[in-house]
Structures are given as C-alpha cells and as structure tokens.
Design a protein that fits this description.
- By secondary structure, the chain is of the alpha/beta class.
- The protein folds into two domains: 155 residues, no CATH class; 152 residues, NAD(P)-binding Rossmann-like Domain (Rossmann fold), CATH 3.40.50.720.
- It is 39% helix and 23% strand.
- Strands 3-2-1-5-4 form a five-stranded antiparallel beta sheet. It has a five-stranded parallel beta sheet with strand order 12-11-10-13-14, sandwiched between helices.
- The longest helix is centred in the last third of the chain and has 35 residues.
- The protein is elongated.
Length: 330
C-alpha cells in the first residue's frame, strides 16, 4: 500500500481519515513496526496491522479518534495476551493520527515523494492531531519501518523493489506476473513474439519485446533476479547461460524438470560456465512439494521461492554492508 496516496484519497473522498502506525513491537506480534492502516470515518480501511482482534480494536479506536473535537495525536500500548486474549504473547505500540483537508498539501507532497521511491522522515511526537514530518536526505532502504525514541518518530516509507527479469509471456509467465503484482519486485517482462503481452499489465511490470537475452541482461542492474520460462528450450538455455556467466544475479531459475536440468547442466559445462555457477541454478523453479502443473500453482510456489531468496539475499547484503562499515570505521 502506498500510504500517502491512500491517505490523500481518503481525505478527498471522506473529508478525513486516521493513520494507525505500528511503532513498537516486543515479542511475538501479528505485524512488524512500520505496518500501517488507514481508517475512514465509516470504519472502512486500507492496509493491515495484522488482522484479528488487534486490528478490529485499532479500527474502533481510529473511528473514535476521528469523531473527537479537537482531534489529537494518540499513542497506545497493547499487551496482546492480557488486553486482547490473543496467544501471540507480545506487546504492540500504536500511534493514531488524524488527517483532514488542512493537511492536503503536506499529504500530496509526501505522496509524490513516495511515488518516486523509498524515503525516510523524522518528526516530533507532540501536540496536535498528527506528526509534522521532515523528509530526510538520501534514499531509504529495506522494508517500511517506524520507531519512536526521545519523542521523535523516525519512519521509512515504500520499499526498494527487487529487479526481476522474467523471460517468457506464456501461461505461466502471465500467472507469475499477476502473482507478483502486490509484491516488492520490479518486473522487466521479456518476450520477442509479436502480441505476446496482455493489453493490461500490473504497475510493477514493464514489457520488453527483445530476442537477445545477452543484450537484455547486459543492461540489467546488479543484484536482480532472472527467470526463464520462454516458448523455446534453446531460448531458455541462452537466458540461463547469459545470466550465470554474468555472475551478477544471485537468483537464476528456469522452468522445467530434473531431466531438463541435467541436460542444461551438460550444455552449460560445454559452454564453459563454472561448476559453482551451474550449481546455483534453480531448476525446476518452485520446488517439487506441489505437484500441480496448473500455471497458477507454479506461479504460487515460484513466488514463495522468490520471496525467500529476496529475504536471504537482502539479509546477506546487510551483513556485508555492516562488516564493510565496521572495517571503514576501524
């Protein structure tokens, strides 16, 4: 959910709305700090802070906050077990803000910034109905967050999307693009066939009619993922060979079977691809736990695989960056 676009739309349509932000988590909780919920006066809402009793109570508190005159900033600490009877056992800190038409210009500016990519803000948690946020210089990285320390709310909005080059616009490719639509992936969808792409695409997918995988991947950013599921095994092999040879893509996968993998391994060795690179090839994509070959089923298991790979690579990158920072500081 784009937070500020959603807040702005709620103001225009309903006159006012409340923004509920998870600002602290201790122990087990339904969502992480930085999860957000936008609530309208009629109880309608967008986003989620985890569902269940916590969210139901938060929506009720938010609608009550919208009815108060004057509106005020409110903080709440909820022990999920004693207060709500939930078995999570943790504690969650919530911040309630009220936005009215007076905040249109501020919200519009934040929405424009959010549309441009991840960013960070700071603001004092004091009197009034909402936090006065200042956008910080530099881009934010990682998932959205929110923390309060010494009366200052530090937040990030938006999430850096993992670049994904998806080769093939057949049935599985189409199912996968739809499954990826709400997730933090920036999809470059490649297929050389005329008319291969549907007329309507998700906002995070860009079609590219190109037939040379090497040229396409040469222009791709480091750290992106690559998947091959084209109409041609020869083209799949060309995609995989170019991606593995580049050594810049931490996740390279191809649709297929154990037989296809064995054949590709022989051909990749013959092409001079290193054994370490070949061993990292993901084939078949999506694993083997689900036997269904329905395009939607393959897409579902592949998305789970991509999410796990994204989290693992992001964690490894953070560790590497911290190690570098410690070395530079030393």
């Amino acid at each position: 959910m784009r937070v500020w676009e959603t807040v702005g739309r709620a103001i225009e349509e309903a006159g006012r709305c409340a923004l509920v932000t998870v600002v602290a988590v201790e122990g087990s909780a339904p969502r992480e700090a930085g999860a957000r919920l936008v609530v309208r006066p009629d109880g309608g809402f967008s986003g989620t802070i985890g569902g269940g009793t916590l969210e139901w109570r938060a929506i009720a508190e938010a609608t009550a906050a919208l009815a108060r005159v004057p509106a005020r900033l409110e903080r709440q600490s909820v022990a999920l077990g004693p207060d709500l009877g939930q078995c999570c056992g943790g504690r969650v800190g919530l911040l309630y803000e009220v936005f009215t038409g007076e905040a249109r210009a501020e919200v519009r500016a934040l929405a424009e910034r959010e549309a441009a990519g991840p960013f960070a803000t700071e603001g004092a948690v004091g009197a009034g109905a909402r936090v006065a946020r200042t956008v910080l210089a530099g881009a934010a990285a990682g998932a959205p967050t929110a923390t309060i320390a010494d009366g200052t709310l530090a937040e990030t909005f938006g999430a850096a999307a993992r670049p994904l080059h998806l080769f093939g616009a057949g049935h599985v490719g189409r199912a996968l693009v739809l499954a990826l639509a709400p997730l933090p992936f920036a999809v470059t969808w490649v297929d050389p066939r005329p008319g291969a792409f549907p007329s309507h695409l998700p906002a995070n997918a860009v079609p590219l009619a190109a037939g040379d995988p090497g040229a396409v991947l040469a222009a791709a950013a480091d750290g992106g993922f690559v998947l091959a599921m084209t109409h041609s095994h020869a083209l799949d092999l060309a995609v995989v060979a170019a991606a593995l040879a580049a050594g810049r893509f931490p996740h390279v996968g191809v649709i297929g079977s154990a037989t296809k993998r064995a054949r590709f391994e022989r051909q990749l060795r013959a092409a001079g691809i290193a054994e370490e690179q070949i061993a990292g090839l993901v084939c078949p994509i999506g694993g083997t736990a689900v036997r269904s070959k329905l395009p939607a089923a393959i897409a579902a298991t592949t998305v789970a695989e991509l999410l796990a790979a994204d989290e693992a690579h992001a964690a490894a990158t953070i560790v590497k960056d911290r190690a570098w920072a410690r070395g530079a500081a030393g």
